[in-house]
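Module 6 notes. Inverse folding takes a fixed backbone as the condition and produces residue identities as the prediction. Think of it as a translation problem where the source language is geometry and the target language is the twenty amino acids. Below is one complete input and output pair. Work through it position by position during the lab.
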């Protein structure tokens, strides 16, 4: 990613109003994907408690994976 890229380059405009803040595109994508996964699991008949447990577990594992990658990749650069 370019170091001198404008701050708003990774953002999308929300349609809430003229004075509304910009939403970061990756956050919007994550929310949409989680909602689609949740809806898909519920449609296929999985219990709500199991769906919640699966989504939370996936979120925690994803966060730890990203943290681990950041630590590994940043230590190799230094």
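Target side of the pair, the amino acids:
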């Amino acid at each position: 990613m370019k170091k001198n890229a404008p701050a708003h380059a990774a953002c999308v405009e929300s349609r809430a109003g003229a004075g509304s803040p910009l939403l970061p595109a990756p956050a919007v994508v994550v929310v949409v994907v989680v909602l689609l996964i949740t809806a898909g699991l519920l449609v296929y008949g999985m219990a709500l408690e199991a769906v919640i447990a699966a989504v939370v577990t996936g979120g925690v594992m994803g966060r730890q994976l990203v943290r681990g990658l950041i630590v590994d990749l940043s230590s190799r650069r230094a």
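Reference fact for the lab report: Strands lie at 11-12, 23-24.
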